[in-house]
Amino acid sequence: MTTQAQETVSPISQWYDMMTRMFPDKRLTFLNYGYLAEDSRFDWLSAEDLEQKCSTNLIRTLLGDADLRGLKVLEIGSGRGGNCSYLARYTDAASVTGLDFCPAHIELCERVHRLDGLSFVGGDAMALPFADEAFDVVINIESSHCYPDLNKFGEEVRRVLRQGGRFFYADTMKGANTRALSERDSIGVDFFSNVLDQHQAMIHHAGFRVEDHVDISQGVIRAFESEQGHLKHLLKSLVDEKKQHSDSLPPEVYHAFDTMFHFFDDSGIKAYRNGHLAYKFWRLSKAA
Ligand SMILES: C[S@@+](CC[C@H](N)C(=O)[O-])C[C@H]1O[C@@H](n2cnc3c(N)ncnc32)[C@H](O)[C@@H]1O
C-alpha cells in the first residue's frame, strides 16, 4: 500500500474494510448486486456456489462468450475474491490476479482462496503496480464508483493490457431521472455520484474500442427480488448471527446494515425501476 493509495481512500472503501473485519466468514466472497435474466438457469454452477448465484451470474454474463483459456487475467477491485475464484475455477485462465485497495480484503482472500494460478495484490486502481501490457484481460465489477479519478483508472487499464486485450467493465451509476426523491426513497441511492457520461468519457479518453454496451438494470432488479442466492440473503443471516451472540455490534453499524437492506428490498428496486439509478456493462478492447 502506497501513501498515494491511502490518500485516495474513500468512505465507501473504509466501510468495506470495516465490514470484512466484522465478517471474516469465507462464505461471503462477492460484494456486488448480482444479475438474473428472466430465463437464468444454474445447471453450470456447482452446489457450493449456489448461495451467491446472482453474483456468479453477473460475471458470467459480463464475460459472455469470451474464451479465457490460457490467458492472464486481472480483476481490479477484487473485493473478497468471489470473481477471481470463479475465474480460477471455471475458465481455465493461465493466471488470475486480484487487486484491491482494502488490506482486509487482501488478507481474507489470501486465507480463503487458495488455488493454483490465483494471487492477490494490494494496490490502487489509479496506480496499478504492474508492468505495461502484463495482462490479456482486465475485469472491473462494481468498484469504479469508488474512484476519484476515472480517467486515470482508464489510462492504467490501457497501460497494463496487451494490444488486442479485452476489458470487461460493469458498474452502477446515477440514471437519467434527476427528479428529487422522497426521504425514504433516497435511502442508499445517493451513494452513487457518477453518471453515464463520466464512464463514457473515461472509455473515450483511454481509447478503448466499444464492442458491446448493455444496460442490465432490469436484471439487477430481478436479483434484488430473488428469494435466494443474493448478497442480501447472506448478509442478513450474518447480521442476524451477530445479533444473537454476545459479540453484538454498535448501534450505528446495525443502522448502516438496515439502510443497506432497505436499499436492496425497497429504495434500490424503485431507483433502478424509475431511472434514478442504472447498472451498465461494457465489453471493451485495446485496439492497436
Ligand atoms: C462493491 S466491491 C466489489 C468487489 C468485487 N468486484 C465483487 O464484484 O464482488 C468494490 C471493491 O472496490 C475496492 N476499491 C475501491 N476503491 C479502490 C481503488 N482505488 N483501488 C482498488 N480497489 C478499490 C473496494 O475495496 C471493494 O473491495
Describe the structure.
This protein has 288 residues and is α/β, with parallel strands linked by helices. The chain has a single domain (4-175, 189-283), classed as Rossmann fold, CATH 3.40.50.150. It contains 10 helices and 7 strands. It has helices spanning 3-7, 11-22, 53-63, 82-90, 103-112, 150-160, 196-206, 217-225, 231-244, 251-273; strands at 72-76, 95-100, 118-122, 135-141, 161-174, 209-215, 277-285. The chain has a 7-stranded mixed sheet with strand order 3-2-1-4-5-7-6, with helices on both faces. Helix 6 packs parallel to helix 7 and helix 8 packs across helix 10 (251-273). 43% of the residues are buried. Bound molecules: S-adenosylmethionine (SAM). S-adenosylmethionine (SAM) is lined by residues 8, 13, 16, 30-32, 77-79, 82-83, 100-102, 105, 124-126, 141-143, 146-147. S-adenosylmethionine (SAM) binds at residues 8, 13, 16, 30-32, 77-79, 82-83, 100-102, 105, 124-126, 141-143, 146-147.
Protein topology:
Layout: H1 3-7, H2 11-22, H3 53-63, E1 72-76, H4 82-90, E2 95-100, H5 103-112, E3 118-122, E4 135-141, H6 150-160, E5 161-174, H7 196-206, E6 209-215, H8 217-225, H9 231-244, H10 251-273, E7 277-285
Helix pairs in contact: 2-5, 6-7, 8-10
Order of helices and strands: HHHEHEHEEHEHEHHHE
Radius of gyration: 18 Å
Name the helicity range: 25-40%
- Report the total helices: 10
Let me know the number of strands: 7
Distance between the termini: 32 Å
Under the CATH scheme, which class?
A: Alpha Beta
Category from helices, strands and their pairing: alpha/beta
Q: CATH topology, what is it called?
A: Rossmann fold
Small-molecule binders here are: S-adenosylmethionine
What portion of the residues fall into strands of 2 or more residues? 15-25%
Q: What's the CATH superfamily, by name?
A: Vaccinia Virus protein VP39
Overall structural domain count: 1
- Order of neighbouring strands in the sheet with most strands: 3-2-1-4-5-7-6
Shape: globular
Going by CATH, the architecture would be 3-Layer(aba) Sandwich
Taking all residues together, what is the mean pLDDT?
92
Low-confidence stretches: 1-7
